[in-house]
Amino acid sequence: MNPVDIAEPLRSRWSPSSFDPTHELTTAELSRLLEAAQWAPSGGNRQPWRFFVAPRGSAVHDVLVPHLSRGNSGWVPRASAVLIATALLADEGEEPGDPTFPAYGVGLAAGQVVLQARAMGLHAHQFAGFDHDAVAAALEVPAHAKVLTGIAVGRRGAPDGMSERDAERDHRERRRLPLAEIAFGARWGEPFPGLQASGPTVAEVAEAAEDPGGA
Ligand SMILES: Cc1cc2nc3c(=O)[nH]c(=O)nc-3n(C[C@H](O)[C@H](O)[C@H](O)COP(=O)(O)O)c2cc1C
């Protein structure tokens, strides 16, 4: 299942694992990615996003890599750079409050980075599988901020040198809940009437595969 009628670069965005381990991002390209984040909306325009910028081989990259989860340790280091997205939970010296809206804001900014990457012909793959506490301690993240995710950015490459498991991930079917399960009308759980996906649903594709002669 892939989107059909939504706008670019939303349509062609996905999260590959087979990054080209020789590709590098220029500082100008990193600047554009961060500028995309900079212009995200946020509650009260508080701009709660902070990023560590970690090109492959940089000191921050060297801090992150040993703390990646087993599932992420094969593919993340191949990407040209990782942006480590952190949320500012309070002003300096203040107790961290409710993280809901800071985290919401960082999610929006991360989404803009990912789409900007695609618009630049690059790909981005976010990941939460790493030891957040160890990375936060090594990078001296203060108590009023929280490390949330990594955003691996790069150019797609051949899967040479990747484990079979990692290489296979890029060929998995992408699945999404149908609109009826995520968009409600009169009350919680009641689908908003009449909404239609522009592409076939997972169920429709499976049905067609079982009955190739069907309508
Ligand atoms: C908050 C967050 C955490 C994620 N963590 C991981 C991760 O640790 N490892 C990984 O391979 N992918 C991770 N992903 C990527 C998702 O698995 C991926 O976005 C999802 O399967 C949908 O696939 P798509 O991005 O190709 O549409 C994460 C994505 C988000 C937004």
From TrEMBL:
Keyword Oxidoreductase among record annotations: yes
Nitroreductase domain boundaries: 10-67, 70-155
Entry-linked Pfam families: Nitroreductase (PF00881)
Ranges of Basic and acidic residues composition bias in the record: 162-171
InterPro entries referenced in this protein's UniProt entry, alphabetically: Nitroreductase, Nitroreductase-like
Chain residue ranges for the region called Disordered: 1-20, 156-175, 195-215
MF terms in GO: oxidoreductase activity
Record bears the keyword Oxidoreductase: yes
Keyword set, alphabetical order: Oxidoreductase
Similarity remark: Belongs to the nitroreductase family.
Name under which the protein is recorded: Nitroreductase
Species the sequence originates in: Nocardioides caeni
